[in-house]
Specification:
About 50% of the residues lie in helices and about 10% in strands. The chain is built from 15 helices and 8 strands.
């Protein structure tokens, strides 16, 4: 119906009402959170507010908690390999690489590790309805083109397994070089999960690079401040929680489509304080705690909320100097990014040592 038609129509007489007049906008206040959803338990309630992702590479946990997505990294893969059930994934990775011929070099088993991660990821995709995140070798975190090449290699391995690339996130450390690799990959239609994210500068740069998803590490931020200040933090004042809330408000205010997946939790209090975040990735012990609680779980984050105090910042390809300045001024982020890369690289080497033993055994058996 045209606006002129509406204007020409007679206005009906209002009927008498005993109700006190209330403006419609009173029901649409952006600052008011959505009504609390009472599920069977807090995990069930959380699933109505956020996409729940399992922070594990263990098949039993995926089957038990039925997350939408799942995520892995070298540390989780290494932990999973302690389970005898996973020997078949390693055996297949070794077999596939022996067929291709083992390359020589400083780390000759790195490609077998890629195949192992893809084998586990493919298994997880047979269980979850959504996506799996697979991490690029942390040794490449400061090399843009090597990161792009490794990401394309991982995608090729998944495709060879019959996996649609749209069911993948490629995990990349949120260094400047990693963020630039993300920009290249996103332009090629490969969605990236930017991990080891600790600073506001990293979050801004990832969004401007078009990252599909970021993973700010809540618990590791809190660890740094706990050590620095020598005290514990209540969930509502937890520095990791406050960091994610700041990023969330910034992204929503300036209409970024990048998904925020809060990660690396130390306790369920941190998770409860971020109820409503786009995605939340949770380890099995904390999933169990949430499942055991029937207390109400109110929204803490929602897209229309206000409260962003940050001006819009441009941090694209040409703003390296600004990124270095902002990120460098956050000592926590500098320390934790380096530590995270070093730890993932160390677990990657342990994984490759495990592969080396398996290869030796396979050679002896012919």
């Amino acid at each position: 119906m045209q606006a002129t038609d509406l204007q020409s129509r007679p206005v009906p007489q209002a009927r008498a009402s005993c109700r006190r007049p209330v403006r419609v906008s009173a029901y649409l206040t952006a600052n008011a959170p959505p009504p609390t959803i009472q599920g069977a338990n807090q995990l069930d309630s959380l699933r109505h507010m956020s996409k729940v992702v399992a922070d594990t590479g263990e098949v039993w946990a995926i089957k038990e908690f039925k997350p939408v997505d799942c995520t892995t990294n070298p540390s989780l893969v290494l932990k999973a390999m302690q389970d005898p059930e996973y020997c078949r994934f390693l055996d297949d990775a070794v077999y596939q690489e022996r067929r291709r011929g083992n390359p020589q070099g400083i780390r000759p088993h790195a490609l077998v590790a890629d195949q192992l991660a893809v084998n586990i990821g493919t298994e997880l995709l047979s269980i979850v309805p959504g996506r799996v995140s697979t991490e690029v070798d942390a040794h490449l975190s400061y090399d843009t083109m090597a990161t792009v090449d490794k990401a394309l290699h991982l995608v090729d391995l998944y495709v060879a397994r019959g996996v649609d690339p749209k069911r993948l996130y490629i995990k990349i450390a949120s260094t400047w070089e990693g963020i630039r690799a993300c920009e290249v990959l996103q332009q090629e239609g490969i969605d990236c999960n930017m991990t080891l994210l600790f600073s506001f500068a990293q979050a801004v740069a990832c969004a401007d690079a078009g990252a599909a998803l970021i993973s700010p590490f809540v618990g590791r931020i809190m660890d740094w401040y706990k050590k620095k200040e020598g005290r514990d933090f209540a969930p509502e004042e937890d520095p990791g929680v406050l960091s994610v809330k700041r990023i969330y408000k910034y992204y929503k205010k300036y209409n970024y489509s990048t998904t925020i997946m809060a990660a690396s939790f130390r306790n369920v209090g941190e998770i409860r304080q971020l109820a409503g975040c786009d995605n939340i990735t949770i380890a099995p012990p904390l999933l169990k705690e949430l499942e055991a609680s029937t207390d109400p779980l109110p929204y803490q984050l929602w897209p229309q909320m206000s409260g962003c105090e940050d001006d819009h910042i441009r941090m694209g390809f040409h703003e390296r100097e600004l990124f270095d300045k902002m990120h460098g001024e956050d000592q926590m982020a500098v320390d934790k990014l380096k530590e995270g890369i070093d730890n993932f690289a160390a677990d990657q080497r342990k994984l490759e040592e495990l592969i080396g033993v398996a290869l030796e055994k396979a050679e002896k058996q012919g």
